[in-house]
Amino acid sequence: MKLDELLRENNVEFETMVHPPVYTSQALAAADHVSGHCVAKPVIVHSNRGFAMCVVPASARLDMSRVARVLGDDGSRLATEEEMANACPDCELGAEPPIGRLFGLTTLMDDSLHEEEYLIFQAGEHTSSVKIRREDYERITSPVIDSIASR
Q1: What angle do CA 130, 28, 20 make, to 5 degrees?
Q2: Does residue 113 surpass a pLDDT of 80?
Q3: pLDDT of residue 49
Q4: Structural domains in the chain plus CATH codes
Q5: H/E/C letters for each residue in 4-41?
Q6: Confidence at residue 1, expressed as pLDDT on a 0 to 100 scale
Q7: Residue 5: is it exposed, middle or buried by C-beta count within 10 angstroms (0-12/13-18/19+)?
């Protein structure tokens, strides 16, 4: 299922923004003229349960020790580029939307994003992003919400 199909099927209002190619979440924030605190950055990790999508603000870093605690696996690690490409085949590498269910993955969301009214994230390609209400994001992803980022 594609991102726009998922959003429409779940009656999520969204705004699509087109911009020059960006390759980091902080660059996305700059291109969309917003704070990095509301840009949802996906990071795919591998654990003993398989792959999971961790979502943190662009202004923060994923804390793997916190992820390991949440997943209950001290061997958790970042996915390789090849694993990311296989997990998200319909997306440009590094432009995955932070919605694990699109790819059959569990979603973990940093609790700081829970404070935002809107979230902005890449839409599967480096030249477009999507803005949705954070409440809608949580409704369609059913994320595990915990402290998984370091500022």
Answers
A1: 90
A2: yes
A3: 86
A4: 3-150 (3.90.960.10)
A5: HHHHHHCCCCEEEEECCCCCCHHHHHHHCCCCHHHEEE
A6: 64
A7: exposed
What average pLDDT does the segment 49-59 reach? 95
Amino acid residing at 109: M
**Listed residue (144, 105, 137) closest to 121, CA to CA:** 137
Do the beta carbons of residue 84 and residue 44 sit within 8 Å? yes
Q: Which of 40, 55, 123, 45 is nearest to 80 (CA)?
A: 45
Q: Which amino acid is at 99?
A: I
Closest CA to 28 of 119, 100, 116: 119
92-108: per-residue pLDDT in tens? Answer: 999 999 999 999 999 99
